[in-house]
Specification:
three-stranded antiparallel sheet; elongated; single chain; 3 strands; 6 helices; alpha+beta; 12% strand; 112 residues
Length: 112
């Protein structure tokens, strides 16, 4: 199934790997677009375009600091992703329980 052309929701916005990379960099704190572009090895207009999309879906905030505009992470925008992935928690818990049982069986076999 083709992805929708819109980037108006957080899932489409973070589908782009460089946008996820930007979010990872912003976890450490606010940064200007020039630093983000340099760190990612992309052009400043390219970084600005990604930041605009991230800001539109509520994942990034910006503020003016002197002559620079600083961008920072707004993790509240990740709530839909967190809620959606939380629906798989039971799957992971069951997988870890099976893995734990397997490891216990191996330990017991080695002791015998």
């Amino acid at each position: 199934m083709a992805r929708a052309a819109t980037t108006s929701d957080v899932f489409n916005a973070i589908a782009e790997p460089q946008r996820r990379d930007i979010l990872v960099l912003l976890r450490a704190g606010e940064r200007p677009v020039t630093e983000l572009a340099q760190e990612l090895g992309i052009s400043q207009p390219g970084a600005s375009k990604h930041l605009r999309v991230l800001r539109e879906v509520g994942l990034v905030q910006d503020r003016k600091a002197g002559k620079q505009r600083l961008y920072g992470l707004d993790a509240r925008g990740l709530r839909p992703v967190h809620e959606w992935t939380g629906g798989f928690e039971q799957f992971w818990n069951e997988s870890f329980d099976r893995l734990d049982a397997y490891v216990q069986d191996l330990k017991q076999q080695r002791q015998e």
